[in-house]
Amino acid sequence: MQPLPTFDLVLFGGTGDLAMRKLLPALYRRKASGYLSAKSRVLGVARSELSRDEYLAQVQASCQTYLGKDYDEKRWAEFAQHVDYVKVDASAPEDFAGLKKKLEGCDEHGRAFFLSVAPDLFAPICEGLATHSLATPNSRVVLEKPLGHDQASSAQINERVGRIFSEQQIFRIDHYLGKETVQNLLALRFGNTLFEPLWRRGRVKHVQITVAEELGVERRAGFYDETGALRDMVQNHLLQLLCIIAMEPPATSDPDAMRDEKLKVLRALRPLRGRDVLHKTVRGQYKAGAAGGKPVVGYLDEKDVPNDSKTETFVALRVDIDSWRWVGVPFYLRTGKRLQEKLSEIVVTFEDVPLSIYERPDTPQALNRLVIQLQPDESIELTVLAKFPGEVMRLRPVNLSLDFSETFKAPRLDAYERLLTDVLKGNLTLFMRRDELEAAWQWIDPIRQAWDQSDEAPKTYTAGSWGPAAASALLGRDGFAWRNEL
Ligand code: NAP
């Protein structure tokens, strides 16, 4: 195993939920796999007054919780040697002196500042780093979502961060792109010839992208009520998945070749404005129901949610892409909280045969379908028609499955593990470029505005269902159904 070049990873928000649940366990795994060189450091940063030992105790507890059976005392002791803590209040410029002291004399190390904090701290942190000469030319900065709440605020953050770090130093994370199955989707599309001739209008009937959560708003109600599902999920994760499905083959594996192609998709999205928004989008809000077999409260009864909130916890949209490849092929996107199960999948449904000479079921299940599942399991499944055994030529759908955990016994990287490695290697392929982000907001903003101007409240749905009936009608009108309704 070749370790990564020596680095200092400065984790702003080092005591927060994301750091404890995802980032630090991912770094522990990197250490366990031999990727952390002896002198590499992980510096947790937050406002809390904590000694190194107190911080290590918190990190250890979360590694034990979130790594489960992968946690090992000996490995923990090895990882702990890399971890340290610095108290910095990001809004107090003088506090950066403590961080400067920790980083002193290590300018030759690769340096990455991971900003796992609220986005209004992104610019002050970058400015604090610049004032104390910590943003060296070989530094990188990693920005977590949400990057603003609309195009204007996102542009403002990008502008201020861009004065300190060049675009090549800025890593905007969308952790969906770090998932193994998304990489496999790229392999399937651009490492094989099989699908390319079929990957277009005339061959593809429609595409569905679902990111369903069983959880409600949990501890993030305050943040969520300001944000809603459109900004929290569609603007980033769902549009990024759509880009991966819809983009043209990049000419090379160069990061910008891929990002150029994704940008073209975002710019080809047919704008949704005014009445179109009401016709082609559905927003919902969950009411009391059940999750995991237990009763749960509705969104308006969640702690920290105002009881007249109109924030959407569910969105479904019909999206059209005005390009030669895709015009006329509807893409349906759907995401929500408190849905029936945790499920992220992309479903590409192909056109039917022009003439059927065999007896076959006359149902949508009989169409060729490619299902790319990202959660809970990562798999790719292709539905084809095959002959049912017996004398008569009767066709029935069967699935050709590629279950990655069955097929490849090699350990798989968690999304944050991969993305952190890419940051430390300087590979920008799976990170959003500024123009991509702004094009996504440009498409999203008019939808939000049309909703805000409408008197219509979000449609309610029972927690534990698949969302409002209107979401089924959105596809039903076009003669289709969500895969779970087939
Ligand atoms: P969190 O649990 O509220 O943690 C926030 C962290 O920021 C804490 O470590 C906090 O520590 C620190 N902090 C707050 N104000 C600070 C300041 N002025 N100076 C220095 N540190 C400060 O939030 P989170 O859930 O980890 O999320 C962090 C960011 O990632 C948010 O923007 C969130 O939207 C985004 N995100 C989170 C998730 C997730 O699953 N949690 C997923 C995707 C994106 P102190 O209070 O000690 O300062």
TrEMBL record:
Residues annotated for NADP(+) binding in this entry = 47, 145
GO MF annotation: an example? NADP binding
Top EC class for this record: oxidoreductase
Report domain Glucose-6-phosphate dehydrogenase NAD-binding positions. Answer: 10-184
Ligand binding (substrate): 175, 179, 213, 232, 337, 342
**Where does this protein act, in terms of pathway?**
Carbohydrate degradation; pentose phosphate pathway; D-ribulose 5-phosphate from D-glucose 6-phosphate (oxidative stage): step 1/3
Q: Which UniProt keywords apply?
A: Carbohydrate metabolism, Glucose metabolism, NADP, Oxidoreductase
Q: Which GO terms describe its cellular component?
A: cytosol
> What protein family is recorded?
Belongs to the glucose-6-phosphate dehydrogenase family.
User: What is the official name of this protein in its record?
Assistant: Glucose-6-phosphate 1-dehydrogenase
Which organism does this sequence originate in? Steroidobacter agaridevorans
The opening ranks of the lineage are:
Bacteria, Pseudomonadati, Pseudomonadota, Gammaproteobacteria, Steroidobacterales
Designated gene of the protein: zwf_1
